[in-house]
UniProtKB/TrEMBL annotation, chain B:
<feature type="region of interest" description="Disordered">
    <location>
        <begin position="126"/>
        <end position="149"/>
    </location>
</feature>
<dbReference type="GO" id="GO:0005524">
    <property type="term" value="F:ATP binding"/>
</dbReference>
<dbReference type="Pfam" id="PF00270">
    <property type="entry name" value="DEAD"/>
</dbReference>
<dbReference type="GO" id="GO:0043138">
    <property type="term" value="F:3'-5' DNA helicase activity"/>
</dbReference>
<dbReference type="GO" id="GO:0003676">
    <property type="term" value="F:nucleic acid binding"/>
</dbReference>
<feature type="region of interest" description="Disordered">
    <location>
        <begin position="913"/>
        <end position="946"/>
    </location>
</feature>
<dbReference type="InterPro" id="IPR027417">
    <property type="entry name" value="P-loop_NTPase"/>
</dbReference>
<feature type="region of interest" description="Disordered">
    <location>
        <begin position="1"/>
        <end position="30"/>
    </location>
</feature>
<feature type="compositionally biased region" description="Gly residues">
    <location>
        <begin position="136"/>
        <end position="146"/>
    </location>
</feature>
<dbReference type="Pfam" id="PF00271">
    <property type="entry name" value="Helicase_C"/>
</dbReference>
<dbReference type="InterPro" id="IPR011545">
    <property type="entry name" value="DEAD/DEAH_box_helicase_dom"/>
</dbReference>
<feature type="compositionally biased region" description="Acidic residues">
    <location>
        <begin position="1"/>
        <end position="22"/>
    </location>
</feature>
<dbReference type="Pfam" id="PF09369">
    <property type="entry name" value="MZB"/>
</dbReference>
<feature type="region of interest" description="Disordered">
    <location>
        <begin position="377"/>
        <end position="407"/>
    </location>
</feature>
<dbReference type="GO" id="GO:0006289">
    <property type="term" value="P:nucleotide-excision repair"/>
</dbReference>
<feature type="domain" description="Helicase C-terminal">
    <location>
        <begin position="344"/>
        <end position="503"/>
    </location>
</feature>
<dbReference type="GO" id="GO:0036297">
    <property type="term" value="P:interstrand cross-link repair"/>
</dbReference>
Length: 522, 946
């Protein structure tokens, strides 16, 4: 989904941070267990908000914890040993730390009363220092949740809630406690309750989060390997993808529940994931590949997932290696100008070029089409006549397999591009962030609230990433060296075709590749 | 040219018969003949059957040419009824219209003609503007782009309450336009429509799209795909709009608001046509639904024939079956159940050549009735000498596959079938042709529904026969003994409440996901007034589901497709697929529709035996795990069916408001109701004897957060009544209460609870089935404050602990709470909304408690059953989870008398009554040596219910 795109350079994470597992954190007597990451951040962990009340700001306890916590799994996960000596517990006072981790902090929504409250607000108000802000990280709220609650220090009653804490930090009253509540839990409807969320802080305080389903890791990340199959593989001694690749396709298909077809597919996908090299599964040409000139890579920015305006249209032309951005910087109530400008340019300068997007039929083309029809209907026919490709759909949207296997835990563009070696600019933005920024502009009308260049760079980065993925796919070997099979003849006739046509095609190539088994494509 | 006779479209197939001399058309059997010929065991108590004659009505018509342009007027064979003409004229003036007339009065015809008018207007415009398109409609559209310049063909969105009705009307409308020679394409687009190309084609090409509101709710999410259809939409039809009441109506009202918002976005401002059965408040109901002015047309110009209405109270059971040791001689304690008697009448009527529709309250009874009708023939073979005569009888309900249902409809229409036993699925306007007779198995609960059902017999001017077979229920007995209740009162109001914030808030999320919310959504023309809208948005922002401000647009940021969380039918929305066990021949596949979770928990536990289309199935597995829960069946052949027991308890009730009624205290609040279906009985199909009892189902409880009201009886009234009825006992009662002094008083509370729920529909717009109750000697153990005291400072336990997994555990929980109470608990009873979230029913009862109590008191006092423990007509309830034990009528009347006396002027009489008792044991605070109310709170047993 558009809003959850993010930058994540491919790099190994070194385990120099402590392992914190809130349910196992028992601070011994009084003090809250504390952990440091580097010299910068101190985390206090409360297993239950009750602990906050008892949890004095016991410096002794804190430093003891920090000392023993320098290595990842020493003294922290079996925290009892670390904390036992510090149960003085007599000191009471506000709990201070850079970040408090407490999974019990969550919100309760009562639609009958039209109110949402913060659970345990009273305990937080009593325990946290007044007149300043404390960040609370909680697995009880979905990743992406970020609201700044101002609580009355006496009662814990919510005074106001700031919805954009990063931008608009209101001063905290002396008799109030500001709690910046940030979610670290699974995202509803994404990956289920067992999903894993990765949070990334950057220096300017932005936090990005990505949710992973358990199946995004290890063997289960391989197409066709569910929990059952993973268990069967494990009983055969196969627990990693590389071990899977050591097993021959024939041996793999001897395992109960795995047919020859799926064994081959598992192999292919495991290899893609291990090597980071994409693999094409069919002889279908890339969308627009047969076209004389490369497609223009398109990306749009809106003010939200139910857009009221398309305020930026970025187009990257691989042919000239230039990028062009159409941005509404002056009048956020003017929905038409950017569209007209873009259409005039496209039809005037590039009348015969095709467009390329990542999931454009799910977002960019859809909204462009709707907005053009509504705000500048004179362009509808021209817009309809432009050939539009969707690389994401081409790669994935086909019964069973899609046309290509992509590396990366998810199929989000930035993840795939990063896996394929694209080194993007670190704009620190994602779709939701850039939408929120524009909303601020819409509200205030002050052009200065936006760093326009940064937002343009973000959009351009996506367009270029798309081309990078395209090139890598174009250079990847096709499923078979055999050209001119029935399948590929049909395929050229049905470029940009509907999935239904595509699936019959997949069957026929499936037949032809099976004859290719053992030729050693790699 | 003239249309053929039966192709007239809509549900008015009988319009052609208006010239017939209806009165002289004999029906095969009259009410009097039915009474005379029906074979019965034992004495015939004619007092239990009354035959009422309802007069017919002549047609009033208007020449077609007065209303319609010649192109349409000349095509129609029959003149318009006055109400049709009136509605068409109002539509011509641009008004929204609600047509509230009888079944088969030709309501479909009105919007069908309006669509035709719009179509002809557009064709006229296209011709004027240079005839750019020879054919403005259909196949030549090449895409949205091509349509931009041409005049768009107007479209209409037509919503029916059921999928079955949608298919039926699709055929009718298409036939109608064929006959008129108009190229108007009518297509159904709902959950059964094939995905992909078919759907795309319908969206892009159909002129009229038929769907239901569950579909509209879903499809609004992708409104850009509907741009062509919505932009051109100039008519929205809401058929059978009276069905949108209660919680369902609330959701529909909000879906319509969301639809209007999206239509406005595409610059469409369509007219609305609503068609409704006769209800009390068609104007108010319609304008609440669509949030706009509506012109009501309710002067019915269609003819009806005279009707005989037979109110049939089944005879008393033969005395040898009556093992209860009945009281007085003239007391009617147990009658033959309607579930047995009604199928016999169905069988008898079809034998006498009357094509008959039997309405049953459940799918199970629809199936069973067909078997029982056949058995009746066999049992009375001396009378029914030709057993095959009129014996083609089939069941019909929404659990059958579409193909089967359609087959049944067709066979009914063509006369192949002699009778059908149906749920209310056939109450709505599906065209099954005219019946000679209807039989109702029990009073359907509302007059509106009652009239709608009997309207199925005697279409046009024909004579008709309708039989209402009374069940044991309070309401049934009241109705057959007070026919004026049916005949002289207006039908009920349909209630839609758009003030309910919970439902509003849910739809607000959907609206934001469809189109960002902005200032135009606030105020009189928006979704809500500014303050309410801002509060709801702030709530969702704090919850992380919405972002942004009204000035610049509020977007949805929660999990994808919030529309999915809307449950239109007050169910959890979880559906179980029905599968056939491994190794069973495919031809036994019951082809059942998916089952709602509530239904599975009640009726489809492992071991359950269900009858489906005449075949018995045993449930051999139930898989509750998502995402694909399922029920597995295998065919079986046993002589019993299963009946699940239902137990209920209330936990964590929190009082939000309370008021004093004299010394009584009445509360309204919220709490958790747990419904347990954890045991079942095996019941013989014939005779109804229980063969095995209390078998475990293994099903988890259904938990509802809902609204409740409860009455606390003051201690001195309790003490007095405990003392007065201390000698009451119930033989073989298996209960903690059995041998205590409290039993009689407890029976009074229980009886009063049943009666107040039973009469509530007489006073308020509620369906008894939407209410539940619980009488208890310890109200306090069901309150949240009790749980909090018990658990000290452990916040994690308030309201969020897992529900006790079976009723025994629930009782243990309540008992434990009772032990921990500091004060002596108050006794009384709860009444709750039996729907998650609550609908405001118990709220209405809270506000009108005195009136409800007065009716309940009169009902009990005036019942002539003569039994202490009452009868089904007064305080017994067929849905009682405790086998209607203990019940004590006199104690109930006393409790209600004290309540009403303390609210009114009869105070003096009862005060003395009380004082006398108080002198005995009232003021000692628990130390009296007598075994009074305080002789051990551990002996105040916890719960029982309705």
């Amino acid at each position: 989904m558009r809003a959850s795109r993010r930058r994540r350079p491919a790099r190994a994470t070194s385990l120099d941070a402590p392992v914190i597992h809130p349910p196992l954190e028992t601070g011994g007597g009084g003090a809250l267990p504390r952990h440091r990451i580097g010299d910068e951040l101190e985390f206090a962990v409360a297993q239950h908000p009750r602990a906050l009340g008892v949890g004095a700001d016991a410096d002794a306890g804190a430093s003891a914890s920090a000392d023993t916590g320098t290595s990842a799994d020493d003294g922290d996960s079996d925290g009892n040993s670390g904390g036992d000596g510090n149960d003085n517990g007599s000191e009471t006072g506000p709990t201070s730390a850079d970040v408090l981790i407490c999974d019990q902090i969550t919100t309760t929504t009562r639609p009958t009363a039209l109110e949402t409250t913060l659970d345990h607000a009273a305990e937080l108000a009593a325990a946290l220092p007044t007149g300043q802000e404390t960040t609370v990280l909680t697995g009880g709220l979905p990743a992406g949740y970020d609201e700044r609650w101002h609580l009355d220090a006496e009662t814990g009653a919510a005074r106001t809630v700031e919805h954009n804490p990063l931008r608009s930090a209101e001063p905290v009253a002396d008799d109030a406690v500001a709690v910046r509540v940030r979610g670290a839990g699974p995202i509803d409807g994404y990956g289920g309750a067992k999903s894993v969320v990765a949070l990334e802080y950057s220096a300017d305080g932005t936090l990005s989060s990505t949710a992973y389903a358990p199946g995004d890791f290890g063997l289960e990340s391989v197409t066709g390997v569910g929990q059952k199959t993973a268990n069967r593989l494990e009983s055969q001694g196969v627990t990693t993808r590389s071990e899977l690749l050591e097993l021959s396709v024939a041996a793999l298909s001897d395992i109960e529940g795995i047919g020859p077809k799926s064994a081959r597919r598992m192999h292919e996908h495991a290899r893609v994931l291990e090597s980071g090299e994409p693999r094409r599964l069919t002889d279908e040409p890339l969308p627009g590949e047969a076209w004389g000139r490369p497609p223009l890579c398109l990306d749009i920015e809106t003010d939200g997932l139910s857009p009221t305006i398309i305020w930026q249209i970025g187009v990257y032309d691989p042919e000239s290696d230039t990028h062009r951005a159409f941005v509404e910087r002056d009048d956020p109530t003017d929905r038409a100008s950017v569209l007209r400008e873009f259409c005039d340019w496209l039809l005037g300068v590039h009348p015969n070029r095709a467009l390329l997007t990542w999931n454009g039929w799910g977002f960019d083309y859809r909204h462009l089409g709707a907005f053009i029809a509504r705000h500048c209907p004179e362009y509808v026919d021209d817009w309809e006549s432009i050939l539009k490709f969707d690389l994401y759909r081409w790669a994935t949207d086909r019964e069973e397999t899609g046309n290509a296997l992509l590396p990366g835990r998810t199929n989000e563009l930035d993840i795939v591009a990063a896996e394929l070696g694209y080194g993007g600019q670190e704009t620190g933005l994602d779709g939701a962030r850039t939408a929120a920024a524009y909303q601020r502009f819409m509200r205030t009308g002050e052009s200065g609230v936006l760093e326009w260049d940064r937002h343009k760079a973000y959009c351009e980065d996506d367009c270029r990433a798309l081309w990078h993925v395209y090139e890598r796919l174009r250079d990847a070997p096709r499923a078979s060296g055999v050209v001119g099979s029935v399948g590929s003849a049909r395929a050229t006739g049905s470029t940009g075709s509907s999935p239904d046509e595509g699936s019959s095609h997949a069957d026929s190539t499936g037949g032809s590749t099976s004859e290719q088994t053992g030729l050693g494509d790699f | 040219m003239a249309t053929n006779e039966d192709g007239d479209g809509g549900d008015e197939g009988e319009q052609g018969d208006q010239d017939d001399q209806g009165d002289q058309q004999a029906i095969p059997i009259t009410g009097e003949e039915l009474r005379e010929t029906f074979p019965r065991a034992g004495a015939r108590e004619s007092g239990d059957i009354s035959v009422l004659e309802l007069p017919g009505r002549d047609a009033a018509t208007v020449p077609n040419s007065d209303v319609l342009r010649p192109e349409l007027a000349e095509q129609l064979e029959h003149d318009l009824y006055t109400h049709q003409a009136e509605a068409l004229e109002a539509l011509e003036c641009g008004e929204n219209v609600c047509v509230a007339t009888s079944t088969a009065s030709g309501k479909t015809r009105i919007y069908a003609l309006q669509i035709a008018r719009h179509y002809l207007d557009a064709r006229g415009r296209a011709a004027e503007t240079g005839g750019k398109k020879g054919k403005p409609n259909g196949g030549e559209k090449t895409g949205a782009g091509a349509g931009a310049a041409a005049a768009p063909t107007p479209t209409a969105y037509v919503c029916y309450p059921t999928k079955a009705l949608s298919r039926d009307q699709e055929r009718e409308l298409n036939d109608f336009y064929d006959d008129l020679g108009l190229d108007i394409t009518v297509r159904v687009y709902d959950g059964d429509t094939e995905r992909g190309e078919t759907r795309r084609q319908i969206r892009e090409e159909a002129d009229v799209i038929i769907t239901n509101f569950a579909g509209v709710n879903t499809y609004l999410h992708d409104h850009d795909r509907w741009a062509r259809f919505f932009s051109a939409c100039d008519l929205v039809v809401i058929d059978e709009s009276h069905t949108y009441t209660g919680v369902h109506g609330m959701h529909v009202a909000w879906i319509i608001r969301r639809l209007k918002r999206v239509l406005a976005y595409y610059d469409a401002d369509p007219q609305f046509v609503l068609t409704s059965a006769t209800i009390g408040n068609p104007g108010a109901h319609s304008s609440t639904l669509i949030d706009d002015q509506v012109t009501v047309i309710d002067e019915d110009g269609s003819p009806t024939g005279p009707r005989e209405l037979v109110l049939w109270n089944p005879p008393p059971l033969p005395s040898e079956e009556d093992g209860n040791g009945a009281g007085g001689k003239d007391a009617v304690t147990d009658r033959v159940p309607a579930t047995v008697e009604a199928p016999r009448l169905l069988s008898h009527l079809t034998y006498h050549d009357a094509q008959t529709l039997l309405f049953t309250p459940s799918r199970k009874l629809a199936e069973l009735s067909v078997k029982r009708a056949a058995k009746h023939r066999r049992d009375r073979s001396q009378y029914y000498t030709n057993p095959d005569r009129g014996s083609a009888i089939e069941p019909y309900h929404a659990g059958h596959s579409r193909r089967n249902r359609h087959g049944t409809e067709h066979q009914l229409k063509t006369g192949v079938l002699d009778g059908v036993a149906s749920t209310n699925a056939l109450e709505l306007g599906i065209n099954v042709g005219e019946m000679d007779a209807t039989v109702q198995l029990g009073y359907p609960g509302q007059r509106q529904s009652f009239w709608q059902q009997i309207g199925r017999a005697g279409r046009g001017a024909k004579r008709a026969l309708s039989v209402l077979v009374a069940g044991h229920r309070t309401l049934d007995q009241y109705v057959v003994n007070n026919s004026e209740y049916l005949l002289e009162n207006d039908v009920e109001d349909a209630v839609v409440d758009t003030e309910n914030d919970a439902v509003f808030a849910q739809h607000l999320l959907c609206a934001a996901a469809e189109l960002a919310l902005d200032e135009s959504d606030a105020g009189a023309d928006g979704l809500a007034d500014r303050e309410r809208l801002e509060r709801a948005i702030e709530m969702w922002r704090r919850a992380g589901k919405l972002t942004g401000h009204l000035e610049t647009g509020v977007s949805y940021t929660g999990p994808p497709r919030p529309q999915r969380s809307i449950s239109l039918y007050a169910t959890t929305g979880e559906e179980y697929t029905v599968e056939l066990a491994d190794g069973v021949d495919e031809r036994h596949d019951p082809e059942m529709e998916p089952l709602a979770e509530e239904r599975v928990l009640r009726d489809f536990h492992e071991g359950a035996v269900r009858l489906h289309e005449g075949q018995q199935y045993e449930v051999c597995a139930v898989d509750h795990t998502t995402p694909r829960p399922s029920v597995t069946l295998r065919p079986t052949d046993v002589a019993y069916y299963t009946r699940t027991r239902t137990d209920v308890t209330v936990l964590d009730a929190v009082s939000e408001e309370s008021r004093e009624i004299g010394s009584f205290t009445l509360h309204f609040g919220r709490g958790r109701v747990l419904v347990y279906h954890d045991a079942y009985d095996e019941v013989a199909i014939h005779g109804g004897k229980k063969q095995a009892q209390q078998l475990p189902t293994g099903n988890p409880p259904l938990s509802m957060e809902t609204q409740l009201c409860w009455l606390e009886v003051p201690e001195r009234v309790e003490s007095a009544l405990v003392e007065r009825y201390r000698d009451f006992s119930v033989p073989e009662l298996d209960s903690d209460l059995a041998d205590t002094a409290h039993l009689g008083y407890a029976g009074g509370l229980h009886a009063a609870e049943h009666a107040t729920i039973g009469v509530a529909p007489l006073e308020l717009m509620v369906d008894k089935r939407d209410l539940g109750g619980l009488a208890t000697l310890s109200i306090d153990s069901h309150l949240a404050s009790a749980a909090a005291d018990e658990n000290g400072d452990d916040e994690t336990n308030t309201g969020k602990d897992p529900a006790p997994q079976n009723i025994a555990a629930a009782e243990a929980t309540v008992r434990e709470l009772a032990m921990g109470l500091e004060r002596k608990p108050a006794s009384g009873w709860f009444i709750y909304d039996g729907i998650d979230g609550g609908l405001g029913f118990s709220r209405a009862i809270y506000e009108n408690f005195e009136a409800v109590a007065r009716r309940a008191r009169d009902l009990i006092e005036n019942c002539d059953c003569g039994r202490i423990d009452g009868c089904p007509a007064c305080v017994m309830d067929d849905q009682c989870g405790n086998d209607n034990q203990p019940l004590h009528r006199d104690a109930a009347v006393d409790v209600l008398d004290h309540l009403l006396a303390s609210s009114g002027d009869e105070r003096n009489v009862l005060e003395s009554d009380l004082l006398a008792n108080n002198g005995g044991n009232g003021d000692g605070s628990g130390d009296g040596g007598k075994h009074d109310a305080r002789d051990g709170d551990d002996r105040r047993p916890p719960l029982f219910y309705a």
